[in-house]
């Protein structure tokens, strides 16, 4: 594969590791744990992996040298740093015992079930150090949920003499990892399963997981683009730019980008829901800001919108809940998409059907069109004197495979190293974790948390299922409070900040900084 000058230089970067992972480790165990909700149900579903302690690694004098082959799976959407989890895992298992082998399952969990794999050798690994993307082995969205899948996977695990499977994924993928760990433990198969927290959306975090990998790089990538647009916006002074960013279930990306770039408006889905705001409320808010800036002679501005904001509007949330129930009915299975639409419409309440028929296609265009109509009305009433030209942008795929920032390169390498140590220390049903991440990397704290600790029961496709609880933006949390304290000022003024591209070499305050979200949450 042809490499750019940046890739060649970047390949030589040696990720920084926490002190505890720099040599041999020993495990310090905490108290028994329980799930974040529905303790009795989760305990019943996971009798073999429930209640295990949180573990922390500490430096030791002797290493564990027993032979262990490991399989690795990338699951779900791409996130910057995935390759460094794999390189960290590879380097550590080879350090523990040079005979250890690493097998990558191709195109996600389906690769395990279909026995589609490749051995990851030093030659392959070295091609991908500190690179973005998941192209080393590809990713997929097959869910590991059925006994037949677990048993089929076991065949190749036995054939390759694999001791443990590492699943790199988000909340759903790690829920599947926990189910797989429980199944293999219940059957006494002697196969360990370890998870790693990945999602650029930032919604896989809790008391134990400070941030999911990829969030740092993706937000810095989007913020660079938003900063560029703001500069363009302030140069031409004739457009309102509506910028949609990723984040279906949570607005962490939108909030982080707002903290980095100070746009005139940023919507936060969780606030829309908490305040019970209607589409009209949102449109009136945006139109009010546009009109106020027009009074100052500023007929331009930037609006950052999380892609899932429409789904947080109470009327639409209610519709989606009923749609999920309807489409989970037996008669909705095995029919075409068009037939499903008709079937759904025929089963919706009158209120939900009215909402369904008005559903938007592209959020940013819908909002700007509605704001335009509102401004026309305000003009007739003498409440608006400006011009309203618009441009639309959606930043999604642009950030998912960016070359990881130093933070993500280091964080992911430490997660992979931690996963190897969890395996070597006989753990299963754990997620690798790295904490204290606003300190310099050598002061980070590495270990593992039982996946069951993060679970509760939620309704999925009409049934109650055990899932890892998603982390939404907390309206009483420090990042949102910081944003809320400044948004009125940013709305009226042109207070744009231009973060520029991710920097890989140079002063640590430029190159190694965590996200504003993480710094505010840890008050550093």
Care to describe what's here?
The structure is a single chain. By secondary structure, this protein is an alpha/beta fold. Helix content is 43%, strand content 16%. The chain contains 20 helices and 15 strands. The strands form 3 sheets. It has a 9-stranded mixed beta sheet with strand order 1-2-13-12-7-6-3-4-5, with helices on both faces. The protein has a 4-stranded parallel beta sheet with strand order 9-10-8-11, with helices on both faces. A hairpin with a 2-residue loop joins β14 (455-460) and β15 (463-468). It starts with a helix and ends with a helix. The mean pLDDT is 93.
Topology:
Layout: H1 5-11, E1 25-32, H2 39-45, E2 53-59, E3 69-74, H3 82-96, E4 102-105, H4 109-113, E5 117-119, H5 122-127, H6 147-159, E6 162-169, H7 171-186, E7 192-197, H8 215-236, E8 240-245, H9 252-261, E9 265-266, H10 269-274, H11 279-295, E10 301-306, H12 314-327, H13 337-347, H14 350-357, H15 363-380, E11 390-395, H16 397-400, H17 406-424, E12 430-435, E13 445-450, E14 455-460, E15 463-468, H18 478-492, H19 508-511, H20 516-521
Strand percentage:
15-25%
| Strand-pairing-aware structural class | alpha/beta
Biggest sheet, in brief?
9 strands, mixed
Given the C-alpha coordinates, what overall shape results?
A: globular
Strand runs, count: 15
Strand order of the largest sheet: 1-2-13-12-7-6-3-4-5
Distance between the termini: 41 Å
Helix content: 40-55%
Low-confidence stretches: none
Mean pLDDT: 93
The rounded Rg comes to 24 Å
Helical region count? Answer: 20
């Amino acid at each position: 594969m042809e490499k750019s000058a940046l890739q060649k230089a970047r390949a030589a970067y040696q990720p920084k590791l926490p002190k505890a992972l720099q040599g041999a480790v020993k495990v310090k165990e905490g108290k028994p744990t329980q799930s974040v909700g529905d303790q009795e149900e989760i305990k019943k579903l996971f009798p073999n992996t429930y209640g295990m302690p949180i573990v922390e690694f500490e430096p030791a004098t002797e290493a564990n040298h027993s032979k262990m082959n490991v399989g690795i799976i990338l699951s779900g959407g791409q996130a910057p740093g995935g390759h460094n989890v794999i390189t960290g895992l590879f380097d550590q298992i080879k350090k523990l015992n040079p005979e250890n082998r690493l097998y990558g399952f191709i195109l996600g969990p389906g690769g395990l079930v279909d026995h589609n794999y490749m051995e990851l050798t030093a030659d392959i690994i070295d091609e991908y150090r500190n690179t973005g993307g998941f192209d080393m082995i590809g990713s997929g969205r097959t869910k590991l949920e059925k006994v037949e899948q677990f048993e089929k996977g076991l065949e190749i695990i036995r054939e390759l003499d694999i001791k443990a499977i590492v699943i790199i994924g988000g909340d759903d993928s790690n829920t599947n990892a926990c189910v797989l760990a429980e199944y293999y433990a219940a059957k006494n198969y002697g196969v360990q399963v370890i998870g790693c927290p990945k999602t650029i959306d930032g919604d896989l975090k809790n008391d134990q997981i400070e941030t999911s990998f990829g969030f740092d790089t993706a937000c810095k990538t989007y913020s660079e683009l938003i900063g560029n647009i703001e500069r363009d916006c302030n140069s031409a002074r004739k457009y309102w730019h509506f910028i949609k960013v990723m984040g279906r279930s949570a607005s962490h990306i939108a909030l982080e980008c707002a903290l980095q770039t100070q746009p005139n408006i940023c919507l936060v889905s969780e606030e829309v829901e908490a305040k019970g705001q209607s589409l009209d409320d949102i449109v009136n808010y945006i139109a009010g800001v546009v009109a106020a800036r027009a009074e100052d002679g500023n007929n331009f501005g930037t609006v950052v919108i999380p892609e899932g904001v429409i789904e947080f509007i109470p009327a639409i949330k209610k519709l989606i809940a009923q749609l999920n129930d309807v489409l989970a009915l037996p008669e909705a299975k095995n029919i075409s998409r068009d037939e499903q639409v008709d079937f759904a419409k025929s089963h919706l309440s009158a209120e939900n059907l009215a909402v369904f028929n008005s559903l938007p296609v592209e959020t940013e265009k819908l909002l700007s069109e509605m704001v335009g109509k509102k401004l026309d009305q305000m003009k007739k009433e003498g409440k608006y004197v400006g011009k309203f030209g618009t441009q639309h942008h959606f930043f999604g795929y642009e950030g998912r495979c960016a070359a990881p920032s130093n933070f993500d390169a280091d964080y992911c390498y430490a997660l992979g190293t931690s996963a190897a140590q969890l395996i070597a220390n006989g753990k299963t049903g754990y997620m690798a974790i790295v904490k204290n991440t606003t300190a310099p990397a050598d002061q980070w704290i590495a270990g593992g948390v039982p996946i069951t600790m993060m679970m509760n029961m939620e309704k999925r496709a009409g049934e109650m299922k055990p899932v890892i609880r998603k982390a939404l933006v907390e309206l009483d949390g420090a990042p949102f409070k910081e944003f809320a304290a400044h948004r009125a000022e940013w709305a009226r003024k042109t207070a744009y900040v231009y973060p520029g591209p991710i920097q890989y070499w140079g002063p640590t305050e430029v190159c190694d900084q965590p996200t504003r979200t993480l710094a505010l949450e840890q008050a550093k």
